[in-house]
Every structure is written in C-alpha cells, then in structure tokens.
C-alpha cells in the first residue's frame, strides 16, 4: 500500500516508508548532480592527495576540477598496468589509493588475453550496496505486490585466484555474493529469493544451477519474477531445464536429491526443502515433455510478472529467445555497473529493451565524458565534458575517477544521451568500444580475432592453403551460443587439401588464442559452445562487397567487416557454405593467471 502523500516522490507513490526514503535520495542526488560531483571529486582527491600517482602529476593537494583536468592525464588500463602489477605483487604503499586495496575485481574486459585487475577498497561494498538498495523501491512503483512472493534468480560465483602478493582476484559479483552484505542481508519482503545462499555460493556450476532450478520448481506458485545477471544466463537456465527435467521431476516425486549433488552445505540445506510431491512431479513432466516450449516460463511459473535481466548492448541478441520462452513478458534492465565502478539505475525499468536508459547516480564516482564520433578513428582527450554538460542525442565514451584509485580512466563504454532526470543525464548503452563478438560476459575485439585466425591458419601451411578472407558472427540460436567464423580459403594444391580433422583443429587453435574470459566460458561455465568455422565458396567475399556497394558503400573505402549481424549478409554467407567444422575438444583454461 502506498504511504502517506507527505512522503510521495516525483517518481511516483512509494510502496512503503523505506521506499520513500530511497526515492527521496534519488531525487536529492539527481537535483544537485553538479554539486554532488564536485563534492565527490574533492573527497577522492583530498583523501588520496599523498598517493604516489597523484604526487607524480604534482597536484599538491589541490582538489578543484580545473587543476585536476589540467594535470591528470586520461588513461587506459595499459597505462596503469605497471602500478596495478606492483600492487598485485605485494607493494602495500599508497600507490593509487590512500585506503588499502582490499582485493582486485577481475573485469570481463581483457588486456593481452588476461582479465583486467581493477583495484577496490572495502568501503566500495557499501557504495555498491547503496545502489542495490535503490532498485526495488523504483521497481515497486511499476509492479505492485512484489512483497507477496519471491524471485527465482539464477546467480553464480566464479573461480577466484590470489595475486603473487596475496590479494584475492575475482569478479565483482563473486565478491558481492561472498560478502557479509549479501550473506547476512536483512530480510526484505520485496526481495526474497527462492535460491538458497548455499546454492548461489557453490563453485560447481552444475550443482549450483541444478539446486537453484529445483528450488524454483518447488516454489513455482510463489515466483513473481525470474532473473539472471545477463539475458544469456536466463536462456541457459531454460536450456538446463530442457536437458535435466526428468531427473528434477524424479527428485520432486521421491523427495530425494540427485546423487550428483555432493556439496555438503547444499545437501544439508536441501534436506530441509526436499519432500515428495508427486502432483508437482507430474506437472513438471507434463509441461516439459511437450515438444513445444513456447511460453514455458509462464506455464511453469504462472505468476511471473517480468524478467529481470540485462538485454542491452550485446545481450539484445537474446531478446527473441526470451520472448519465445516467456510469451513476451516485460524484460527489466535495472542497473548499469562494471568492475571499475557502479554507475546508475534505470528509473523506468518496465520500458522496452530498445528504450532502456540509465540515470547516472552522481555520488558513485566522478564522471567525465569523451565525445565519440562513430565515423572518426581519432578522439581528443582534451575536450572532456562534465556529467551535467552532456548534450542529448550525442554519444560519449565514459571516463571515471573512483574512490578506489582510478583517475580519469577510460571504461570503454559508448553511451548515448537520451535525456535528463532533474540535472542528472540518462544514457542508452550503445556498445563496448572495439568489441566484435560476445556471447556471455566474453568480449573479443578485432585484433584478438585477427590473431586467432593467424594462429589457426598456420595449420594450413603444410597443405599449401591460406585464409584469403574471413568474417564472424555470434550465433545465439544455439544454446549455449557460439562463435561462427566464415573462411574463404585459397587452396593451391587441390590434391593436398586440408581434411575435416585439420579444419576442426583450426577451430580449437582459434579458441586457444582467445582470451581467458572466453576460455573460462567454454571450460568452467559452459556458457559458450564450441567455435565453428564455415568454409565458403571462392568469390563469396567479392559478392559481399558487391552487395555492400549496391547499398551505397564506397568502392574505394570498402573494408571487409570482421563481424556481421545483418540478416541478408548472413543469408548470403550461409548460402555459400561448403563445409562446417567444430572445435573437437575444450581449450586450455585454469583459474591461475599467467605472469
């Protein structure tokens, strides 16, 4: 029930007093965005004034914006790598931050094939928790009654390692789920999960997914929303149900747990949950044994009001699949965050995926924006714009300064300004800069793909064969999705052409060349399927050029696109395929970092 109108918010009537305070906080922050930004920069520079990094640029304790912008350079991860490596190796002096670095958050973006290491400090958990605490108060404005049921969220931890100096290195969500903030979170009737902590915190992805799905089936009548971090994760969960429903139904019918589930804490917890329920087992069997899985989400979880998943950027490719499985349920993108910093939230979470805009919360860090021209390969780091000065309709690359010790750091996200909430801008996430291929949290850029093709094509030399031209696309029609690489080959000796086995090995050689996030997705998370090479007829790429020119491309400036997604081009390529080849085994991957 909405609280007294005295507490009402311009965003809408809050569902309870706690929500009213959260919505009031959003209003205060966004009304005073520039003043908040000035305060945040002042706090960051004052507390870190004695760090080696700021002293190097002779900031001399000054904390005003103009001096900061004149003296501190705009940087990339590669620029900071020497400092980050020193911290990783055990140097505890105040290099980037006056507060001790508590751990590294491993980014899904990579540098030289390895996950980037983002330094963080203990208090950042409080800042992240604050942003999380704003999500449900906003959602409650749009979807009433979420306190009357539960959320079926598929949440997972990933492997963690230690740096040579003994600091943990792990993904930001693994850090959050393992924190006391998450494990001992106070009961909130608007935010109850069906998945027990024991399942979320199990490192074995099969045991974790199986247990979370089993609990979700037991509580099917309570489920009001389904979610995962990325759309790909929810699609994978439905595929998991397709593959494992007979065993799940058996467990429900008998009240006994699948013997493959051996994690002691899960077994103990599930001992309290498991009970024989033949009626539910019959229902699961009836629904899941049908050939048609259209609308399966609302058939099994009939009270579901929306899906809580990220479907912006590369994840937009999963929208048709989710629409099919859910009967077109709304898809809520609630927040915008990265390993480096949590940025903001969607104040209209039930909008269409194509209309998602995130409002930057000015208390999370200091934000600058580098104007981005999609048609230019150059960008000047001299003309950065402050948060409140961005212009509607323009695209920018996000540059951040954080409490944890990143200064004027280029995140690599391209954002388009769609409007303002009070004085805080709202952005549509356009894409990651330079990313060609992405299935899950992997990000493969053009240079990496080129290197992988070059390494794989070495296997063709003994057959006097070379790769003349190539392009790629991320195929998400398969579950899990996989990379498809189209190759046009020049075979100089038709009597000695490479065999299927050799071309299969080329697929594996490409995978071995790709970054650690890709290989972890293949080996540990099962979130990416085997890479596929499709060999096309000679002359195919000339036809591709003719098609592009017929649509207005300049013959002088035409370059073969290294990634394609336009349906007519994919149809042209697929109509010229002569043979298809898949990686015959998993690439090498271990949790340890290469040094």
UniProtKB/TrEMBL annotation:
Highest taxon, organism lineage: Eukaryota
UniProt key word Ligase: yes
Claim: Secreted is one of the keywords in the record: no
Keywords associated with the record: Ligase
Molecular function terms, GO-annotated: acid-amino acid ligase activity
Domain GH3 middle, first and last residues per copy: 358-432
Stated family: Belongs to the IAA-amido conjugating enzyme family.
One GO CC term, this protein: cytoplasm
Protein's name in the database: Nt-gh3 deduced protein
Pfam families in the cross-refs: GH3, GH3_C, GH3_M
Originating gene: LOC107818015
InterPro entries: GH3, GH3_C, GH3_M
Domain GH3 C-terminal positions: 448-565
């Amino acid at each position: 029930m909405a609280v007294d109108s005295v507490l009402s918010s311009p965003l809408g009537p809050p569902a309870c007093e706690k929500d009213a305070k959260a919505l009031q906080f959003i209003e205060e922050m966004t009304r005073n965005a520039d003043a908040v930004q000035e305060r945040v920069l002042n706090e960051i520079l004052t507390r870190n004034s004695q760090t080696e990094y700021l002293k190097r640029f002779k900031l001399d304790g000054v904390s005003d914006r103009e001096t900061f912008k004149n003296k501190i350079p705009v940087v990339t991860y590669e620029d900071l790598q020497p400092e980050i490596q020193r911290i990783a190796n055990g140097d505890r002096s105040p290099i980037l931050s006056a507060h001790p670095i508590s751990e590294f958050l491993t980014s899904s973006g990579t540098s030289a094939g390895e996950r980037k290491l983002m330094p963080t400090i203990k208090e950042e958990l409080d800042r992240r928790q604050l942003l999380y605490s704003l999500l449900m108060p906003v959602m409650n404005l749009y979807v009433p009654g979420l306190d009357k049921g539960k959320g079926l969220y598929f949440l997972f931890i990933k492997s963690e390692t230690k740096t040579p100096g003994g600091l943990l290195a792990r993904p930001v969500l693994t850090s959050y789920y393992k924190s006391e903030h998450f494990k001992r979170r106070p009961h909130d009737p608007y935010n109850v999960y069906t998945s027990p902590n024991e399942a979320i915190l199990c490192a074995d992805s099969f045991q974790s997914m199986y247990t979370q799905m089993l609990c979700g089936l037991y509580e099917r009548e309570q489920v009001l929303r389904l979610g995962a971090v990325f759309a790909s994760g929810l699609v994978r969960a439905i595929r998991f149900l397709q593959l494992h429903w007979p065993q799940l139904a058996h467990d429900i019918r008998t009240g006994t747990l699948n013997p493959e589930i051996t994690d002691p804490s899960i077994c103990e917890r599930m001992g309290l949950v498991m009970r024989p329920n033949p009626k539910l087992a019959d229902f699961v069997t009836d629904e899941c044994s049908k050939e048609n899985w259209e609308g399966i989400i609302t058939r099994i979880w009939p009270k579901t009001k929306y899906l809580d998943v990220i479907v912006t950027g590369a994840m937009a490719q999963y929208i048709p699949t989710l629409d099919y499985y859910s009967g077109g349920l709304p898809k809520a993108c609630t927040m915008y965050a990265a390993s480096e910093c949590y940025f903001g939230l969607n104040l209209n979470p039930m909008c269409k995926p194509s209309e998602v805009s995130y409002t930057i919360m000015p208390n999370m860090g200091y934000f600058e924006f580098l104007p981005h021209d999609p048609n230019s390969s150059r960008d000047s780091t001299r003309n950065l714009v402050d948060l409140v000065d961005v212009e509607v309709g323009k695209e920018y690359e996000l540059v951040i300064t954080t409490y944890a010790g990143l200064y004027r750091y280029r995140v690599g996200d391209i954002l388009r300004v769609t409007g303002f909430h009070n004085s805080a801008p709202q952005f549509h996430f356009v894409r990651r800069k330079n990313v060609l291929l992405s299935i899950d949290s992997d990000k493969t850029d053009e240079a990496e793909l080129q290197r992988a093709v070059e390494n794989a094509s070495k296997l063709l030399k003994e057959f006097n064969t070379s790769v003349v031209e190539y392009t790629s696309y991320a195929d998400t029609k398969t579950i899990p999705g996989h990379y498809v690489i189209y190759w046009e080959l020049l075979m100089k000796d038709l009597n000695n052409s490479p065999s299927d086995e050799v071309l299969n090995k080329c697929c594996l050689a490409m995978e071995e060349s790709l970054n650690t996030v890709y290989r972890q997705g293949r080996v540990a998370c099962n979130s990416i399927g085997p890479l596929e090479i499709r060999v096309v007829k000679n002359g195919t790429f000339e036809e591709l050029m003719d098609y592009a020119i017929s649509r207005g491309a300049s013959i002088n400036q035409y370059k073969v696109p290294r990634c394609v997604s336009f349906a007519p081009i994919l149809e042209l390529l697929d109509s010229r395929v002569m043979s298809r080849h898949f990686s015959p085994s998993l690439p090498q991957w271990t949790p340890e970092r290469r040094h």
